[in-house]
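During the second half of the funding period, the structural biology subgroup turned its attention to how the target accommodates small molecules. The most pressing case was 5'-deoxyadenosine, which had performed well in the primary screen but for which no bound structure existed. We therefore specified the complex as follows and requested a full 3D prediction, including the ligand pose.
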Amino acid sequence: MEDIKALLDKKDWTAPELAALLACRGEEEQLLFARSRAVRDATLGNGVYLRGLIELSNRCVKDCLYCGIRRSNVHAVRYALDGEEILGAAVFAHRYGYGSVVLQGGERQDEAFVAFIERMVREIKRIGDGALGITLSLGEQAEETYRRWREAGAHRYLLRIETSNESLYRQIHPRDARHDFRTRLECLHALRRCGYQVGTGVMIGLPGQSLEDLARDLFFLRGMDIDMVGMGPYLEHHETPLWERRGELLPQTERLRLGLHMVACLRLLMPDINIAATTALQAIDPEGRERALAIGANVLMPNITPLTNRANYQLYENKPGMDEGAAASTARLVESVRRSGCEVRLSAWGDSLHFAQRQGQP
Ligand code: 5AD
């Protein structure tokens, strides 16, 4: 107990010290959570920002060994929303006070796709005269593509590193040029050059991942001077190759706990960034996202994909929110955020304070 108190008062942790914080329990855990929450409240207040998540397509050129929409999964029913469906969802987001939308989808680099996204971004910008913030989460692209989408009006981009341990990265991806750790890193740098607020993140509780790996992931996020983070527990999917290693996994409740500890520790390391309370937390515990908000997260990404296609975007199994009308879920969400001691800030972009501060730097 004294150890954890002393650790919490330290500024610069070693990886083993940070791993000890990630593993703490009981009263020590309560101390960690109280501290991370206090840091969030003092730096950012208790406001929570919404990003309406539009899963625009599950067609993907990648074959990641953990992901349910990987190219080789012949059981995944493939879909792509048309422009009208995407714009309809964005209009919905605007109407219900979601300050931003996230366009997320499987990875494609063909010109038809790139041009389609560019047009969607431009059209979403016209809704309410530029009222909506736009985040993209569309994987690895050429720098030129990132630039086109930035010029069209997208200003945030999410691209998870998945794990900062290069050898673990190789174990969870096919070993070919298309799934290269260095390319992923290079994309994060390219996004920054293009002027995006850059978000990344990791999966927590992967087979073969140690507490020190996770500690180093947090140092990686700080070292990259990242503006936003979305990270959540790894969830096994039976139609993927990584399913074979399910025997090595921590129980889901432990992965959830680690997910919360990762959020708390990251808040201590990077007080002014945006941290999302992710859907994968909710997949394990219906209150998982609220629990993350209560201890330091400040962004929620409610799914506003038209219901007809939602069941097909299954990165992992038992994904929550598969049978709920988007309108009905909004009011419930505002209420459940309140129960976590936070307040939804409707119709606000909620840009990363960290980004604003690094812009101010010479
Ligand atoms: N469990 C948890 N998260 C997953 N993702 C993909 N597959 C899984 C899974 N099985 C996450 C990855 C990816 C994001 C879009 O979804 O981190 O970057």
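Two results from this model are relevant to the next phase. The mean pLDDT is 94. The first helix runs from residue 2 to 9.
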